[in-house]
Amino acid sequence: MLQSSKSEFIEVIIDDAYSRGIAHNGVVVTIDRQKCNYSMYDPSGCKKCLQLCPVGVFSTRPIEKRDFSIPSKERIDPTLWIILAPWADWCNGCAACVKECPQGAISIRIGEKQLVPTPGPDPLGVKG
Ligand code: SF4
Ligand code: SF4
């Protein structure tokens, strides 16, 4: 695990595979880091989820290096930014991000309902 942070409403966990916001109201927003091609600096890099979510679930920030021999102020890597979901508890289940993510990188669970990208003519699989 690279990073984990917790608030009264949500836990954000970031590891090499996933960036995940787990809200106490039963919403879990997961971004597959192997698929997401977000770029902070490349103007052509994807920022779609940030732009289209109507309630601002997503955010971006630089990740911290897990090397405690480095002074804490120097652990932030300004070249490596990622997408995270620090306000997953606000998600209204509209599924726009799941449907529009060009990489199929976002999946959402709201209680028993799963919003997951699926290949084929219907880009959105809704289970439960
Ligand atoms: S829409 Fe998908 S590929 Fe684009 S930044 Fe969001 S998670 Fe990454
Ligand atoms: S399902 Fe809708 S409200 Fe929820 S994170 Fe995606 S775009 Fe935002």
**What best-fitting shape do the alpha-carbon axes yield?**
globular
Strand order of the largest sheet: 1-2-3-4-7-8-9
Span between termini:
30 Å
Named once each, the bound ligands are: iron/sulfur cluster
Question: Given this structure, which CATH class is correct?
Answer: Alpha Beta
Q: Domain count, please report it.
A: 1
Radius of gyration: 15 Å
Q: What is the string of SSEs from the N terminus onward?
A: EEEEHEEHEEE
CATH fold label? Alpha-Beta Plaits
Residue fraction in strands: 35-45%
What portion of residues is helical?
Answer: under 10%
Care to count the β-strands? 9
CATH architectural name: 2-Layer Sandwich
Oligomer: single chain
Uncertain parts: 121-128
Q: From the helix content, strand content and strand pairing, which structural class follows?
A: mainly beta
Mean pLDDT: 86
Biggest pleated sheet: 7 strands, antiparallel
| Number of helical regions | 2
